[in-house]
Amino acid sequence: MDKQTDQRCRHLPDASAWALGALDERSRRRFEAHLVHCPRCAAEAEAVRGLGARLRSQPEAVPSAG
Question: CA gyration radius for the chain?
């Protein structure tokens, strides 16, 4: 693994929050400006968005009567 691949972006934790719509307006704008230039954060955000979409597409579990 090369040095660049091994480094974590300090904004990476915001990728999930952004993908789930959990950032406040200021943080969202700041992260979106960063997102344009960071392939790691873009990939993470896309993965979380994909997971969210898959989860929403599943039928809602109905608990048993017992």
Answer: 16
Which tokens hold the place of 22? 């959990």
What is the sign, positive or negative, of the torsion defined by CA atoms of 31, 32, 35, 37? Answer: negative
Residue type, 60: E
Half-sphere exposure of 11 (CA within 13 A, CB side): 22
Chain centroid to Cα 5, Å, comes to 19
How confident is the model over 8-29, as pLDDT tens digits? Answer: 899 999 999 999 899 999 999 9
Phi, psi of 63 (to 5 degrees): -65, 150
- The structure's pTM equals 0.68
Residue 10 tokens read as 């300090």
Other residues' Cβ atoms within 10 Å of the Cβ of residue 14: 21
